[in-house]
Specification:
By secondary structure, the protein is mainly α. The chain has one domain: Undecaprenyl pyrophosphate synthetase (3-Layer(aba) Sandwich), CATH 3.40.1180.10. 48% of the residues lie in helices and 11% in strands. It comes from Cryptotermes secundus. This is Alkyl transferase.
């Protein structure tokens, strides 16, 4: 709180034990208004599950009449992701020598610079970080037009979509409130 850190846990919290869900919910609610720094922690997270959850939310909105099929856009789907309150990463660093994303933030890294480090996380040093930053800086000029085209393709949201997004955010907050007060 002293440093203004907003804690965000992304993932399917229902897969976690009740006492852990409660602690996570309490931390997220306690820090939800902090805006100096954001700490995103992926816990019980897979990109496929995140995308499926987003599609289920949109389908539910269409079935309930809150949305029309014509409202469904990339921007709407992005707003239904666990990471909707965070900007997409500009740089993703993958350690361990693996050259794959391992079902991690697949939707969000479409316009990111991805750096693969042939070192395990515990050995990742400042020199590895600097190499990743240099790669990002060298790639930046090529990424900008791709990101701009992606933003233009996403278009704008309809008023129905905006209302739906507001309701979805309120529903998620209510679920956190409920979890934070649950008896373990």
């Amino acid at each position: 709180m002293e440093h203004g850190v907003c804690i965000r846990i992304i993932g399917n919290l229902s897969l976690l034990p009740q006492d852990i869900q409660k602690l996570i919910a309490q931390a997220m609610i306690l820090t939800k208004d902090n805006n100096k720094t954001f700490l995103n922690v992926a816990f019980a997270y897979t990109a496929r599950e995140e995308m499926a959850q987003a599609v289920q939310a949109v389908v539910s909105g269409v079935e309930d009449g809150a949305l029309r099929v014509s409202d469904v856009t990339q921007k709407l789907l992005s707003s239904c992701m666990y990471t909707s309150t965070s900007p997409d990463p500009e740089l993703l660093i993958r350690t361990s020598g693996e050259v794959r994303l391992s079902d991690y933030m697949l939707w969000q890294v479409s316009c990111s610079c991805i750096y693969f480090a042939d070192v395990l996380w515990p050995e990742f040093s400042i020199w590895h970080l600097l190499a990743a930053i240099i790669k990002f800086q060298r790639s930046y000029a090529q990424l900008v037009p791709v990101c701009q085209a992606d933003e233009m393709a996403n278009g704008s949201c309809s008023e129905r979509s905006s209302v739906f997004q507001t309701r979805l955010a309120a529903s998620r907050l209510a679920t956190l409130e409920e979890l934070s007060h649950a008896i373990s």
